[in-house]
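Support request, please re-run this one:
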Amino acid sequence: MARTLARAADEKVQWIKSLPFLIAHLVPLAAIWTGVRPRDFVICAVLLFGRMFFITAGYHRYFAHRSYKLGRVMQFIMAFGAMTSSQKGVLWWSGYHRHHHRYSDLQEDIHSPKKGFWWSHVGWIMCAKYHKPDHSLIPDFAKYPELRFLDRFWALPPVILAVSVLLLWGWSALWIGFFLSTVLLWHSTFFINSLAHVFGRRRYVTTDTSRNSLLLALLTLGEGWHNNHHHYQASVNQGFFWWEVDVTYYILKGFEFLGLAHDLRKPPAAALKRNLIRDGHLDIGMLRDLPAKALDAIAQTAQHTKDRIVEATQQVAGSIATTAQQTKDRLVEATQEAAESLAGAGRPGIDPVAR
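Re-run finished. Output below.
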């Protein structure tokens, strides 16, 4: 997919303000000095997929789309658990996600891949324009004071989790168990904004570029059925058919059985048959253009290198010519000086001894 939408003038990456986010990617390297233990990777996996569930079931399917119902205590637990992922506050995340669906792949969409793959993946997060939550996007949940408190102090849950990991299992567990899982969780989530709009199969005609991907579904506990989701956003299950793996939905069914969640909304049978694309062929989107772009880049690089070589050769030749001319001039000057000195030596002068 080519970049077809221009970013607004105020959609710029703030590198300085984004330093904590960028530095966090390097923190797991501290394990080089502390060493690692097998259990650190177990902690990493548990925190990765445990918090992934809170993101998918909480931030996304509950707060953003209200695809099922929770009691107020479970609502708080779901928000707190999702916020340990360090993806900002519950109102910030869910509010901007609603905005994305309202303007998906249009100019107003804050993270459309049409503004650039990198921008949709992570660039928009580092933009100052979107640092603060907009409660007008999510008034139904912004009315709860406990959620507003969590949203205001969004860094508190991940700090509590990080300190707990450190106290329970030590420094190596902090570097690998917490920080590595956090970085992996970030980019797994971000792939739904970026890769799920450029790679995969399209079952339904939608007004955006969403696609279905088994790989992303496995990575994100079911979020990879993104074309399904954009076709019927209010559904608690994003895997519409039994063969479409949706771990988040399976767990929510367990919650329903235990009485922790209720009124799980599924798409009606008529919705599953509406706006179908007959072949559902694999659409690799922007990746289709990569070979041609790669060849073009190689050709441009070769031409640029050739131009630089010609330019450098001309500069060297010019320098040699200039040096040769300067040397020639100096030789002529030195010859003239020597001739004048010899001529002067033959003239009658004053004998210092005679004085």
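The mean pLDDT is 88. The chain has two domains: 19-283, 288-341.
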